[in-house]
Amino acid sequence: MNTNKALNIEEEPVFYETAQSTHDDEKPIKTDMKTVYQEFDRLKTHIHSMQDRLKSTIAQCPEDKSEDLELWLSSPEKREICELKKNQEILRNQINELTNNCADAKDQIKDLRMRMRSKARQILRLQKMIVKMITIKDSLECEFGKFVKRFEFVTNIKAVWERVLQKFDNQKVRYSQLEQSFVPRAHFLEEKKYFTASVNEIKELVKGLFVYQNCRFKDLDDRLASKV
């Protein structure tokens, strides 16, 4: 019918754009949100333009069945106008549904953008946490290396002190043995006093013996002198 041809003529750009959009979606190209909004606005403008052209083209068509039949039996142009008027309501409902779908799609895209921003902030926080953890890891590795060196140093010091303490123990044993071989101080003082007294006594005895011998030598000298 001519009516279908007219509808196909009006709807052809929409289907062409949809097919083209589908073809573009198959390409590995990322379309940003601004482009999607522009596409929705362009589609909405095209729909309103279709409505305006239909309103300007369609004339007043009688609602009475007899008049409607008379129009059907008249010229093909009026019959096409009447058919367009009948299909206008269907097309209007489709346009309204498409408009609502566009609005819903915009809301979904807006919600998706908000989620993407939230995810981006979460990813940024995670990246900062990862950088911080890597920094802490590097710091811990450095501190662990220092700790290992300190542990080795302390281990060496401990081994040296163990040897020193072992030598101290050996010296204590030797000192104890030497101490046992020495005379106690009190006994040593008593022995010293006895030894001093004995020495003094010997000195007195030697002195008396010396005096006695001198006397005998003097007496001997006197005797020898008298005989001469």
TrEMBL record:
It comes from the Eukaryota. Pfam families: DUF4763 (PF15960). Keywords: Coiled coil. InterPro entries: DUF4763. Residues 88-122 form a coiled coil. This is Uncharacterized protein. It comes from Glossina austeni (Savannah tsetse fly).
